[in-house]
Design goal:
By secondary structure, the protein is an all-beta fold. The chain contains no helices and five strands. Helices cover about 0% and strands about 35% of the residues.
């Protein structure tokens, strides 16, 4: 699909207690277009540029995952499509 890259950060560590290890992962992707949220899952595309048809994929976020950057499309409605 596309080449992902990531950054690994060591948040905290403990010499004796492995359960206290915490890491942070930051994934960098090409621009993804949020089409809709269905049953708590994000329906996105990396090729939705106003064409009639485009490839999509859907995934659910883990509760500790967050989007680091979001920018609505200019002139878009709630679902990200231009009207």
């Amino acid at each position: 699909m596309f080449n992902e890259s990531f950054k690994l950060d060591l948040i905290s560590s403990h010499i004796e207690d492995l359960s206290k290890h915490k890491i942070g992962l930051t994934f960098y992707t090409p621009d993804l277009f949020l089409i809709d949220i269905i049953d708590g899952r994000d329906l996105v595309s990396h090729g939705a540029t106003g064409k009639i048809s485009f490839e999509t994929f859907m995934f659910a976020f883990h509760p500790q995952v967050a989007i680091a950057y979001y920018q609505p499309l200019e002139g878009s409605t709630q679902n990200g499509f231009c009207s």
